[in-house]
Amino acid sequence: MRIPAEAMLQYMPSEQLALSQRVALKDVVLHLFTHHSVTDPLLVPAVAEPLLVMVLSGSAIVEERVLGGEWEVTQVQAGNFYLTSTALPYEMRWQARGGDTFEVLHLYLAHSLIDHASRHLLGSQAGPIGFLDISGGRDDLVWMLLEQMRLELIERREPSSLFVRSLAQALTVHLVRTYRDPEVMGRRSNALQAYKLRRVIDLMNQRLAEAFCLVDLAEAAQLSEYHFSRLFKRATGLSPSQYFIHLRMDRARQLLLDTDRSIIDIGMEVGYSSPSHFSQVFRAKVGTTPSAYRSPEHS
Asked: PROSITE patterns, from UniProt (predicted)?
């Protein structure tokens, strides 16, 4: 995986828990995901911050590719990790092995932490750095530090932001020491920050029944409409309005399979007062009609 996820993010069909919301941290974003098998490719956005993913339990076959490229396959189990700072969105899919699910932890580290560690290790004049892409690696120290973060945020009744940030600082120093890409130095790419992308996608999900509003989304990201639209498309490969429709169709697919509500009601819930318009958009995006998707044996 090279992920989302926080800002994953991409709308993932997984059980998820935003661990970093339990403490006041803007420079550390942590999400815990319980993944079921996914056969349809998922779009993983590119964000400003490097992403570290640790497999906590279970095992899976994970496939990933750049858009339009060939699939690369990795077998993973508890203890394997991924590190990426890709500037382009990409696609993923996975198959859980030996059970129905596998559990992963997603960590985004803010550039402020990385820059501080870089200056500490490489000198006060050190510029922005990049990391090597790691797929399915193993590192006992990475595992230990992430596990301590997870335990602090889940097990403690009142988790300490100082303790979590200290662990994140120690982890960042280790990553810079061990996985810095010596060929990537200099100007940092202009990309949307993970916490802003997550905030925008959360707002979209809350308003699927409402009309699309670019102004509100840009305000949530604290950017101009033009700048926000450009960075959002760079991160996800889709314009904000296209991504909004994508979320609507994901929600409609879920409701069609998991409930017995009428297609008219489902269309209303995702913002389509006209059943024919809903069916038209659904067919264009999913490849079949809502009724056929719900009962594929009758399609």
From this structure: HTH_ARAC_FAMILY_1 (PS00041), HTH_ARAC_FAMILY_2 (PS01124)
